[in-house]
Amino acid sequence: MKKLIILISLISFVFTGCTKLDEVIYDRIPNNEYPENADQVANLSVDAYKRLQNLADDNGWWFLAQEISSDGFCGPTRASDWFDGGKWLVMHQHNWSNDVEGVNRMWSTFWEGITSSNQIIDLLKQLEQNDDIRAKIAEVEVMRSFYFYLLMDNYGSAPYLTTANLPGDFLPTKISREAIYDSLVTTVEKSLPYLKLTDNKLLATRYMAFALLSKLYINSEVYTGTAQWAKAEMYIDSLLAGPYSLESDVSAPFKTNNDRSSEIIFSIPYDEDNFEGFRIHMRTLHYQHNLTFDMPVGPWNGFAVVPTFFDTYEDTDLRKQQWFIYGPQFTSSGEEIIESITGEPLVIDPYLPALFMEDGAFTPAQIRTTGARAGKYEIKMGAKENLSNNFPLFRLTDFYLMKAEVVIRQGGNGDQWIDPIRERAGVAPWSGATIDQLLAERGRELWLEGHRRQDLIRYGKWENSWWEKPATDGSKRTFPIPKWAIDANPNLGN
């Protein structure tokens, strides 16, 4: 398209009578002339961040796969609604294959981020090197490492590619999860001196790299077989020394205007018009909740809280009160909402009766009005199909609880890192918290932030039964590489 525009411009140029025809016309700025200034250097990395956009919804599936497969959230089939080929059921019950939507789209999303990052790095390495270019290379290498971290965490062994300049017939082979882990740790640690030590929540800063290294090291036993609690603690401490602090309000990090929250370290900057892709409210709210929030669109009445997880919160817990939607429902002007099928006032019963609610076996009220709904991310008045809340990929309370975990696993007492979070939520502090208590608290505090699958695996609880998910063997700790990818490259099946 660019070349077409340039051609049209050139034709116009000739026919307006200008006789200077020896000018060189480019369809891009030559490498030896670009970037011309610091702003252009900064803009080179934009596409690496753009690839985060699909993580939170079904175009990319990462967030959905982490939460729907866990013990706190589910996508129930409601009579003729939400079966969708069984994709939500198999994800929650760990019955997925290598040819289901979540498995397919997650793989593609991670590789889009990796490939885009590699393309940018390849370009940067062709430029004359100075401090700005070296810093930008380090930043994008950390972004590539973040995508590889998601890939390794979810799929285990995979190809590890650090350039996009590959032969057209190249078919990569897998390397072990442990080898990917080693490469990621080395890459991110080498990048640290070049990264900005700043509180920019949308960039791969040094603090974001500390967070990523903390995640890699705290999961080292899962990835490599060898625990690295002390190394994890070192990077957690580096992060905790940064410019972050707990909000006084448990819901502040999830408000529509949360871009300056003191708890958020790294986030996806969703916008209802200009950076779409965050529709959790559409997937969870009852059909008629548009009346509550004056929405111009009707929600889809789907996702709900697993009832046994709902009961892990004390009634006085402010997170239970503010993050779950249940009980009598009202319009924005305070009137009762009358459910369109039952003809009764809409009351959301938090106790979902089953994962699969077929017609005849359940009443219309059970099918349509059960299961507490997700209200953790603020739904502003007039909310559209996409939210404008930034999605926190790394948030401070996660690292408070990770600090408690590494302390406890090394024989210490982690209460001082747990209790500020509990006290803020209006529940009593603990004395001598155990690892199992800590896992439960991580579940309550970090619900719907994309961490639960990883946590259950690290704590050895992933194969346990919960609600309508039976006990499973260890074969589902990673997702299989998609069938379509193996068909295209048989090396991936070895």
Estimate nothing, just give the exact number of structural domains.
3
Strand content: 5-15%
- Give unreliable regions as ranges: 1-29
**Largest sheet, described in full?**
2 strands, antiparallel
Mean pLDDT: 93
- CATH-defined architecture of the largest domain: Alpha Horseshoe
CATH class of the largest domain: Mainly Alpha
Radius of gyration: 25 Å
Query: Quaternary status of these chains?
Result: single chain
Distance between the termini: 41 Å
CATH topology-level name of the largest domain: Serine Threonine Protein Phosphatase 5, Tetratricopeptide repeat
Distinct helical segment count? 21
Helix content: 40-55%
Q: Number of DSSP strands?
A: 10
> Structural class of the helices, strands and pairings?
mainly alpha
Adjacency order of strands in the biggest sheet: 1-4
Please give a structural write-up.
The chain is mainly α and 494 residues long. It has 3 domains: 48-195, Serine Threonine Protein Phosphatase 5, Tetratricopeptide repeat, CATH 1.25.40; 204-272 and 389-463, Tetratricopeptide repeat domain (Serine Threonine Protein Phosphatase 5, Tetratricopeptide repeat, Alpha Horseshoe); 280-374, no CATH class. The chain is 42% helix and 5% strand. It contains 21 helices and 10 strands. It has helices spanning 2-15, 38-43, 46-50, 62-68, 87-93, 101-126, 131-155, 177-191, 206-218, 220-224, 229-240, 280-284, 290-293, 307-310, 318-323, 364-369, 396-409, 415-424, 435-445, 452-458, 483-488, and strands at residues 73-74, 77-78, 264-268, 304-305, 324-325, 327-328, 347-348, 356-357, 373-374, 391-395. The strands form 5 sheets. It has a two-stranded antiparallel sheet with strand order 1-4. It has a two-stranded parallel ribbon with strand order 2-8. Helix 7 (131-155) runs antiparallel to helix 8 (177-191) and helix 11 (229-240) packs antiparallel against helix 17. It is globular.
